């Protein structure tokens, strides 16, 4: 969710390496998809944390490429991709499409007839409201 707190745990990458000793010790790193620094990956544990607030309205999907590399010689590695999908929360107020409306009403108009239509949009995903005045 876009309101997830900075520092929260998002994912745990686990790479199994069957070798013994240094050849089987694995380090993790994000190699692509983290240009804005939203995520921190702990090198030794493979734990992925949120390091900056996400915004659904700005970016919904964050595809990350993570590399696991062992400490052997030569080093062997493999990569995995994880796409973090941001969930929408209601953090956008509705905004009128116009800040000033002029409405003139003839005095002989029937009560109940619409005078002017105003509309407001809301950047949250299902937020679109309109009403008659
Ligand atoms: Ca290995
Ligand atoms: Ca937002
Ligand atoms: Ca939102």
UniProtKB/TrEMBL annotation:
The keyword Glycoprotein applies. Coiled coil: none annotated. Residues 109-133 are annotated as: Disordered. Residues 2-96 form the Cadherin domain. GO terms for cellular component: cell-cell junction; membrane. It is found in: Membrane. One of its GO terms (biological process) is homophilic cell adhesion via plasma membrane adhesion molecules. One of its GO terms (molecular function) is calcium ion binding. It is a single-pass membrane protein. This is Cadherin domain-containing protein.
